[in-house]
Model the fold of this input.
Amino acid sequence: MLVIMNKKLHTIDTERLLLRPTGLDDAEFILQLLNTPGWLKFVGDRNVHDEKQAAQYIQDRMLPQLDRLGHSNNTIIRKEDGAKVGCCGLYDRDGIDGLDIGFALLPEYERMGYAYEASQAVIDYGKLHFNLNLVNAITDPQNLPSQKLLTKLGLSFVKNIILPNEEVTLMLYQGEFD
Done:
């Protein structure tokens, strides 16, 4: 997969998608994504119920890691029409040793290969620009599509974990890359 990265804009360019760091101008989209049935079921309610709260969520949870590490959450944009279809990124998450890849799509864009294309591009970007050779991922035990995608990306189930200050058991996947 060809991944082109524009260092000034931190944009990842794939065949069908553009991935760029999520910014405050994505608040309306993040509000929609965080309140989809899949997000609420498998990730959890982030108590983001209006655009102002979504902007605050971006400000508090996404932009600090981007400033600190140079990567964070990316908004996935479909090239053909500019539609914001989901998010994908590498995260520095408490309770995980190393970086964790995460992804989510709006329901109407699921099962089109976008999550795989975006996730593979983010892994390739991490290998190229951050010397990433180990990728972690967490998923809910009931989220079978996520587990299938992680396996397709080359990650394998390692163990069940509970993140700090959480009560939910999650499945930890890992993959080593050259």
Q: What stands out?
A: The first strand starts at residue 4 and ends at 6. The chain has five helices and nine strands. Residues 1-9 have pLDDT under 50 and may be disordered.
